[in-house]
Prior knowledge:
The chain is an alpha/beta fold. It has helices at about 20-30, 40-50, 60-65, 80-95, 100-110, 125-135, 160, 180-190; strands at about 10-15, 35-40, 70, 80, 115-125, 135-145, 170-175.
Amino acid sequence: MGKPTNNRIVIGIAAKMGCGKSTLAKEIQKLRPLCRIESFGNAVKMEAALRYGFPLGWGHTAEGKARIISHPKLPRENMTIRDVLQWHGTDYRRKQFSESYWTDVMRDVMGIFPCTSFIIDDIRFPDEAEMVLSFPNHYLVQLYPYREWIPGPNAKHESETALNNYKHFDHVLGPNYGDLPAYAKSIVKGLKL
Length: 193
C-alpha cells in the first residue's frame, strides 16, 4: 500500500452532495494546475460498473445515476445507479471487506502519481478524513450546505451523514461561504502550493 510522504500536500474536501466539493477542488486546480484531483467515488464507480455491467459514464451524471438496473450480485432488483454506488461502496466493500478498503485504494492511487499535491474532493467518512490528516502537510475543509440547498432522496444514507459530528476539520465554511474562488486562493496561499 502507498505510504504518506513528508513533502506531499493533501487537501480533503467534505460536504453533503451538491454543496460545492468538486467546484472548490476545480478552483484550487485552476490556480495550481499541477495539483491532482482524486475522488474516492471514482474508484467506487469504476469497480461497480465493471461488477454490475453498466456504462461507467452513468455514474458521473445525475441522469445516469437515476437509471435503474438489476443484477444477480445486487441485494435487490431495480436499483438506481446511485443506490448501487452507495450500497457497493458502503454496505458491500466497507462493511463486508474492510472499513479501510477505499482509503487503501486511494493510497495506492496516490502512490502511482509523482505529483506532490492532491485534492480529494469527496471525503465522506471519518477514516477518509483521518487519512488526509495522516499527511504532515494537510488541509481538511468542510463546506456546510448553502441556504438554498435541498436534501435529495439519498441524503440520509450513511455516506451523507457519517461526518455529521466529526470535529477534526482544519476549517469549516458556514452556509454563507460565498466566493469559492476567493477561498481557493486563500488555501493555495496558506499551503504554499
